Amino acid sequence: MKQQELLNIPPFTEGIDRVDGKLKVTGAAKYAAEHNLPNMAWAVLVPSTITKGTIKTIDTKAAERAPGVLKVITYQNAPKLPGYDSGKDPSKPPTGGGPLRLFIDNTVKFNGHPIAMIIADSFERATYAAAQVKATYAEEPFQTDTSKKLDQAQMPKGPRFEDYKRGNPDDWKNAPVKVEEEYIIPINVHNPMELSAIVAHWTADDKVTVYDKTQGVKSTQNAIAQAFKLPPDNVQVIAKFVGGAFGNALRTWPHETAAVMAAQLIKRPVKLVLTRELQFNSVGYRPYTWQKISVGATADGKLTGLIHEAKGQTSTFEEFTEGTVNMSRFMYACPSVGTIYKIAPVDVNTPTWMRGPGEATGAFALESAIDELAYKLNLDPIELRVRNHADTDPETGKPFSTKYLKEAYELGADKIGWKNRPAKPGTLTEDGWLVGYGMGSGVFGAGRGRATVKATMLADGMLLVQTAVTDIGVGTGTAMTQVAADAFGIPSSRIKFEWGDSSLPPSPTQGGSMITSTVGGAVHDACTALKEKFQQLIGNGGTDKPDYIQVLKDKGLQQLDVTITSSGSSEMRNFSSYSYSVHFVQVKVHPKTGVIRVNKVVSVADSGHIVSPKTARSQVVGGAIGGIGQALMEEGVIDHRYGRYVNADLAGYHVPVHADIPQIDALFVNKPDYKVNPMGAKGMGEIALIGMSAAVANAVYNATGKRIRQLPITPDKVMMG
Amino acid sequence: MEELNNGALPDGQEQPAGNPRRNFLKQSTLLTAVALTPGVAVKAAENHVDEQVAAVFEKLPLNIEINGTKHNLLIEPRVTLLDLLREQLDLTGTKKGCDYGQCGACTVHVDGHRVNSCLTLAMMVDGKKVTTIEGLAKGDELHPMQEAFIKHDGFQCGYCTPGQIMSAVACVREGHANSEMEIREYMSGNICRCGAYPNIVNAILEVKAGGQQV
Amino acid sequence: MKQFQYIRPSTQQSVIAALSQPGTKIIAGGSNLVDLMKHGVMTPDKLVDINKLPLRTITPIKNGLHIGALALNSQVAEDKQVMEKFPLLSQALNAGASAQLRNMATVGGNMMQRTRCPYFYDIALPCNKRNPGSGCGALEGFNRMHAIFGMSDKCIAVHPSDMAVAMTALDATVIIAGKKGERRLPFGEFHRLPGDTPQLDNNLAKDELIVAVEIPTNNYAAHSYYLKVRDRASYAFALVSVAAALDIDNGTIRSARLAMGGVAHKPWRLTAAEKALVGKPATAASFEQAAQLAMQGAKAFKDNAFKLKLAPATIVEALTHAAGLV
Description:
The complex is a heterotrimer of chains A (721), B (214) and C (326). Chain A is α+β, with helices and mostly antiparallel strands and 721 residues long. Among the domains of chain A are: 387-446 and 576-721, Aldehyde oxidase/xanthine dehydrogenase, molybdopterin binding domain (Aldehyde Oxidoreductase, domain 4), CATH 3.30.365.10; 451-567, Aldehyde oxidase/xanthine dehydrogenase, molybdopterin binding domain (Aldehyde Oxidoreductase, domain 4, 2-Layer Sandwich). Chain A contains 18 helices and 26 strands. Chain A is globular, with a radius of gyration of 27 Å. Chain B folds into three domains: 2-57, no CATH class; 61-135, Ubiquitin-like (UB roll), CATH 3.10.20.30; 144-210, [2Fe-2S]-binding domain (DNA polymerase, domain 1), CATH 1.10.150. Chain B has helices at residues 2-8, 20-35, 38-46, 49-57, 81-88, 144-151, 161-174, 180-186, 197-210; strands at 60-66, 69-75, 107-110, 113-116, 129-131. With 214 residues, chain B is of the alpha+beta class. In chain B, 43% of the residues lie in helices and 12% in strands. Helix content of chain C is 28%, strand content 22%. In chain C, α5 (87-95) runs antiparallel to α9, α10 packs antiparallel against α11 and α11 packs antiparallel against α12. In chain C, β11 and β12 (268-269) form a beta hairpin. Chains A and B meet through α1, α2, α5 and α16 of A and α4, α5, α6, α7 and α8 of B.
C-alpha cells in the first residue's frame, strides 16, 4: 500500500528546467549578503523603541568602546548626503526611494525607526555594540491602530483615486436580493526567506558597486546616484539572485542608502543585513484595510448595483495607495457601480505593494460578497458569475484583447469536483470533519512596458541575451531563455541569458506581472532582429536555420549583435487587457476545535500563452499557497499601546508550512493574446494569489455555515463565529 | 585558563595556528612596555591594543570538519555555526532566513543529523563533522535529491532550497519519507515562502521511491 | 550577543561547582538559550556546556524507564521502549518544534525552556518575568496565546512545552543533582505558577542540574493520545493541547491521566477530571462531563476567551481518540 502511494507521483509539467537550478541546489547561487569582500565591515541598525517623538539624548560611548567597533553613526554625526540636502519637499523624494531619510534629525516617526548605525569588524561585534546604544526620548502621543482612524481617512491626491461612478450605484438598495457587509484584512508582511541585505563597496571616490536585494537594479541605481549625487553610470547595482521579495524590494529603502553611506565613511566595503524583526517595519507590508461591499441583484441573479468602499492605512509622512477597489469596476457586467478609496495615516512606516497588491485585498471583499449573494439567491456561485460575465469592459467600453474566464471556471470546477459541493452549508461531513467547497476569482492588468535587450551571437554558437531585469524567483531567467529560443529558433541549451546587473541594457523593476510581457517582448524583438541581421548578412539563398558559427567565421566576425528597445504597440490602447484566475478549494473543518485543513486546491490561470510551463506552474502553485496563508494565518499584530509589533518573527507571524499544503493543481487556459506581445503571453504572478483568500473563506462558509469576514480565519474565529 | 583546561580544549590535540597563549604573551609584553609610559598607554588604548589583547583572549580553539575538510580555528564562543560558515568560511550555501530557529533555511547535518545551524554555537560542534549543501554533491555529480529538486522544480527563489535539500536528505535517511503526509510533517521545519511545497514533496517521494543511496 | 566564557566540563561535580558562580548558565542543545541570548533576554557571563556528561541514555529500570537529561527530543520520541510503553510521550515530542530542533533539544532543556510570550521576548516591552517590577505587558495587551488557569496579576504567560504536558500526565519524576547529592521531584511540581515571582519558571535551584526523568510503568499505552490545536498544521505553539491517557477495562475507565498545555504557566494537570472519569464508561458523555469539571476556575482575557470553549472541546476530542472511538 505504501509502495503504491510512493509511486503515485503527480507528473511534472513539460517545459525546461530552471536555468539557474543547478546553482540554487548546490548553494553556489550568491544572494546579496553572500558577497564577502576583502576588508569588509558589518553594519547594524539600532531601531527606536518608541513610536513617536524626538531623541533627547543618545549615548553611544559604550558602543564606541565595544571591541571591533569602527564607527557609530547617529543624526549628530552622520554625513550630509548631497542628495538629501536638495529636497525639502517630502512628496518629491530626492532619493527616488521615499521621503524617509535616516540620521538627518532627532525625530522618530514609527517604532523601529533607526536611530543609530554601528559599523564593526565582525557581525557579532556590530550586533553586540548596537545593543549598547542608549537613547532617551521626548515621547509624543501616537496612533498605530488604523481601525481607530477610519473616520479620518482621506481621498489620496491624484485623479486615479477619485470616487468612481457609473450609472446610479445606489440602485443596489432597491434590489430584491442584496448584500451589505464589511470585510477586514490585517497587516500582511512579505517575509521572503531572504533577509533584506546589501553589500556596498566604493571602488573609487566617486564610484560604488552594491550587491543588493532589489527587484529593480536600475531604480536602485538611480536612487543611490541621486542620494550621493553621482552620475548613474558610477553606481553599479548587482542582484543576480534575489531570495524572494513579493514586493518588499520594489523600492530603495533607507537601510540601503545607509549602508552605502557607511562604506563611504569608513572606506571599506560594508555589509548590512536587516534582522527578521526589522522585516516587519523597514521594508513595507500589505496595509490593514477595511472594506464594505454593497451589492444588489434581481431575483434571477443579475447585478443591479454595486458599491465598493475601501480604507487602507498609510504612514504619516507618505501616501501609499493601491488598486483595492478597481476590480469592482469591470469584473462584472453591472450597470451601476461606485468605488470609493481612502487612506488613513497612522504612526507606522509606509506600507508597500505585496503580491497581488490592493487587488488581492479587494478581491477578498468582492469575491466574498458575490459568494454571499449567491447563497441568498440560492444560485451556484459560478452560475451567478457567469450570469454577470462582462463580455466587454464595463468600465471603458473597450473590447477585451482576450478573455477566457468562462473556460477557466469550467476547467477548475471540473478538476476539483465542484458537483460534489453541498448547496446547503454545513451538511457534508467526512470522518467527523465538515467539508466545504469554495471558489474565488482574480484579475490583474496585462500590460507591456519598455525594455532594452542586447542579443549577441557568439563565435561558439551560443546566443547571449542580456538585460538588467531581476529574477526574484519567479523564473524570469528561464522564461526569457525559452522566449529567446523560440524567437531565434535554436534549442534553449544554446541560450545564455544574463540578468540582474544595472550595467546591462535597461529593464523595468520586476513587479506588477509585467516582466514576461515587457522583457519577453523585447527579448523576442531583439532575437528576431538578430536573426534578420543574419539573414541580411547571408543574403538570398540562405536557409532558415543557418550554421551561425560558420556564418560568423565566413564573414570574419567575432560575434554579431543587436540592441533593441521595444514596448507595446499602440493597438493595445483599443483594448482592455487582463489576466484572470479562478481558485477552487476544498477545506475540511473540525467541528469541535475549529481547525481548518485545506484538502484540495485547483488554480486556473487565463494568462495567455504559457511561455515556460514548468516555472509557470510553480508560480501559480506558489501564489495559491500565499493566498492560503493570507486566508488562514497571516497577521502582523501591533500592540497599539506601544505601537510595537508583538509577533515580528516567523514563530509569531505564521506562514504556511509543508503540513498545511496539499498537492495543488495549476491549470492553464493557455490561449495566446497576441495584442499584448508577440508571444501572446500575459503575466500571472499577481493573479496566482488574487482571489484565493476569498475562495478559502467561501469554502469555510460552505463547510460550516460560518461567514468569516475578517482575515485570517484562525481556529478561534471558526469556534466563536 | 582553568576553564580552558576543563574541557574546552580537546585533550591531546595540537594547538591551532593562532595559539591564544602565544598571542597573549606577545601582546602582554607590548602592554608591559607601554604601561611604563602613561602617555603611550593611553595612545595604545585609543588604538584598541587592549581590546585586541582581550579579543584574542576571548577566542577559543575549535576543531571542526566541514564537508570533509578539517579546520583548526580560533573563534569567539558566541559565534554560531551559521555565522561561522557564512561570515568567516565563505560557505554561503547555508542560509540565514530568521536566525531564531523558525524557518530551517540554515539546516546542516552535524554527524549526519539535521540541525538548525543558527541556534548552534560553533563551539558545540567541536570535534564533529558538519555537512553543508556545498558538501552534498560529489564534484560535478549532483546528489539524487538535488537532481530531483531540479526535475520537480522544488524551488523558486532558491533561498530556502539548501535547507530544504539538507532536511529532505535527512528525512529520507531517518525513515520519515514513507508517505506524502509523513514527508509534509517531517519537512515542516523548512519554510518556503515562494510556495514550492508540493514540488518539494514530489521530489522527496521520487528519491525515496528510487531507492538510491542518499 | 554579549561575549561570554565557555567551558565544557566532563564531570557532574565540576558542572555543579561552576553553577555556583553568578551569571552562569547551562547549555545543552541551545535551541532556546541561544535564541534568548540573541534577543538579549538572557545575558549569561559564562556558559557551561554539559554535553560531555554521560546523561544521554534511555534505560529500563525496575518500575519504569529512566531517560537521561541529555537524551535528545528526537531520540526519545523514536525510542522503541518509549513508543511501546509511553506512546503519549512520543506523540507529544513529535508535536513540538521541528525535526531539526528535536535533534538539538534535550529532555532537560525542553523542561527549562522559557515562555514564548512576546512581552518576555522583547526587551523594549514590560515583563515581570524578565524584569521583575516592570509590569505585565500581556495582561492588557495581546494575550491570545496566554493562560486561562493559575495566572497572577504579575504574569499570564504559558509554558510552551509539549513534552512536559505528557510527562506530567505520565506521573514522571525529575531527578536533580546538587551539591548535596540527588533529589527527586514529581514532574508536576517541577514547574511553578507565577504568583508574585514570575521570574522563577521552576523549582530548580541555581546550582542544581537535571540529570534524568523517570516514568513509572502504567497501563495507558493502549489508550493514550496527544492532541495539539494550533494555528497551522505543524511547527507552531499550542493554542491548547491535551495529553489524555486511559486505562479501560471492558468499556469502563479504571483510571485516567489528563494534562493540558498552552493554558497555564506550567503543564496543567486535570486531577478533578481524572477522578471523575474513574469507574465511568468510556463514552462521549463521560468525556463531556470530565471536560466541564476540568474548566472550573478558568478565566479568560481580552484575546483568549476562545480557549474557554476550545479547551474543553480539545479535552473531549483527545479522550475520544484515546478511547479509540474515532
